[in-house]
Specification:
Helices cover 16% and strands 47% of the residues. Strands 3, 5, 6, 8, 9 and 10 form a six-stranded mixed beta sheet that branches. A four-stranded antiparallel beta sheet has the order 1-2-4-7, with no helix packed on it. The termini are far apart.
Length: 302
């Protein structure tokens, strides 16, 4: 009796290992048929490593392999997901019996300013059940080529963070550098003083504009570089510079990250595109404000 029980246990364990080696199975009712379905997905990228002029388009090719023991129709729903958090639309195909579904997508990456980019793409099967493929990893190193910085026209003035101060001039609070005023805060003294602390903390020594004398966009630099670091109490919004684009909405040109509008340029399309190049050129990832919802001051940083 004991020998028989041991034999049954060993046999059951062998069957368990065999079934698991065949891949995940789904048994249930889909489209009116009873099915036993195995789904596997794989993806590869070409090229895996790239070094050269940018932007560059990478191609991802893969297969969704379906083993369908029932022989009935199977609806396969899938999408591509990416390391930057973006995803493709959902795609749907119907297979009859066993089959291999070839799939592909592309990703256009980089400019010469970005340097090295590491990332991945995978296939996410949603239906008939959830399966993710391997992640197709890549490395892109942008060298040479057409640089956005080559066409950037910057309009900057220098300031000395060690000597700037807040002064009331003719009833308006301003930040001044010697006998020259830099920023005007009207009657908002506390916002002027908060801005002064920010400029001194980061050591900002260049104030730059797009579209003077009535600029649609402004930013500050630290000796030609984007400000870095954190200051307690900052009011900042993060964004991914790779996902930004210039769009026209309700007759106004804006910079959007796909889910919200970050900057509004009115009817000035060229200034919007110039601002986008500057954001990417310096690698800005945060827009910070003093005095929202109607800020008197805005600055960008990494």
């Amino acid at each position: 009796m004991i020998v028989a029980r041991v034999f049954v246990m060993i046999f059951g364990f062998i069957v368990f290992l065999f079934l698991n080696s065949c891949g995940p199975y789904y048994s249930g009712s889909t489209d009116g048929y009873f099915k036993d379905v195995s789904i596997r997905a794989d993806l590869r990228v070409n090229p895996e490593r790239y070094s050269g002029a940018c932007p560059v388009t990478l191609r991802f090719d893969g297969n969704i392999r379906v083993t369908n023991l029932s022989g009935g129709p199977i609806t396969v729903n899938y999408r591509f997901i990416r390391s930057d958090g973006a995803s493709s639309p959902h795609y749907t195909h119907t297979l009859y019996g066993d089959g291999v579904l070839p799939v592909n997508t592309t990703w256009r990456l980089g400019s010469s300013d970005y340097g090295k980019i590491d990332g991945w793409v995978s296939i996410m099967v949603v239906k008939p059940y959830s399966v993710e493929s391997n992640r197709a990893y890549f490395t892109v190193e942008c060298r040479g080529g057409e640089k956005p910085g080559d066409s950037i026209r910057e309009d900057c003035v220098s300031l000395d963070p060690s000597r700037i101060e807040v002064k009331n001039i003719s009833g308006r609070w301003k930040i001044v550098d010697g006998n020259r005023w830099i920023f005007d805060f009207a009657d908002k003294r506390s916002e002027a003083e908060q801005t002064l602390r920010i400029i001194k903390y980061f050591g900002m020594n260049q104030s730059c504009f797009i579209g003077r004398p009535h600029p649609s966009f402004s930013y500050l630099l630290v000796s030609g570089q984007a400000p870095k670091g954190e200051l307690l109490g900052e009011d900042c919004v993060s964004f991914n510079p790779y996902k930004l684009e210039v769009v026209k909405s309700s007759g106004r040109w804006k910079i959007s990250d796909g889910s919200r509008f970050l900057f509004d340029f009115g009817n000035k399309e060229e200034e919007a595109r110039q601002a986008l190049m500057i954001i990417r050129n310096y690698g800005f990832k945060k827009a910070c404000y003093v005095g929202r919802p109607e800020p008197s001051f805005m600055y960008l940083k990494k």
